[in-house]
Amino acid sequence: MKVLVACEFSGVVRDAFKRQGHDAWSCDLLESEEDGQHLQGDIRQFLDQAWDIMIAHPPCTYFTNSGVRWLHEDPSRWAKLDRAADLFNALLDAPISKICVENPIPHRYAVTRIKDRRYTQLIQPYMFGHQEQKATCLWLKKLKPLTPTSNLKAETMALPSRDRQRLHWLPPSPNRWKLRSTTYQGVADAMADQWGTP
């Protein structure tokens, strides 16, 4: 299959599909952190290149429920929210038969801007072998919801909050956003294993 992993600089999902023998490409405004097939630029210019499946990870800065209060403290964020919604909608409506768009739980202002389309599935890293908690929503088109591969919920929830929500508690740093946006390997492997058939 010809696989497009949109808004990915880490190569984690791209390489999971590559290991399954697919013609997998990542795309981001940034260079890829790992060697591999990578398109650098605005994803919208590459959407019409006969992809079989797209896994998309659009930026969540202006969508996430945890940051909604900043909309009321910084008026400039409303225009940025509108631009983020334009990208999100372009990905959901791309001319690709199978699509997954992932993002954290969106706030109500984001939901109205993506035409009230509700996510299909909510997953956690602990469902795929990671002892961590980070709710992630998947909007799916012609893809079945992911089946958990190694559910560690009990072990994860027994950990202190700072351990199971490690990414939430990361201290400020130039790379904090990169660490928080990289897909967990177990989730990437599940995507490739479960969705990697024509």
CATH class: Alpha Beta
What's the mean pLDDT score? 93
Shape: globular
**CATH homologous superfamily classification:** Vaccinia Virus protein VP39
* Number of DSSP strand runs: 7
Question: Could you describe the 3D structure shown?
Answer:
The chain starts with a strand and ends with a helix. Helix 1 crosses helix 8. The model has no long low-confidence stretch (mean pLDDT 93). It has eight helices and seven strands. Helix content is 31%, strand content 17%. It is an alpha/beta fold and 198 residues long. It has a seven-stranded mixed sheet with strand order 3-2-1-4-5-7-6, with helices on both faces. The protein has a single domain (2-195), classed as Rossmann fold (3-Layer(aba) Sandwich), CATH 3.40.50.
Q: In a nutshell, what does this entry contain?
A:
The protein has 8 helices and 7 strands. The protein is an alpha/beta fold.
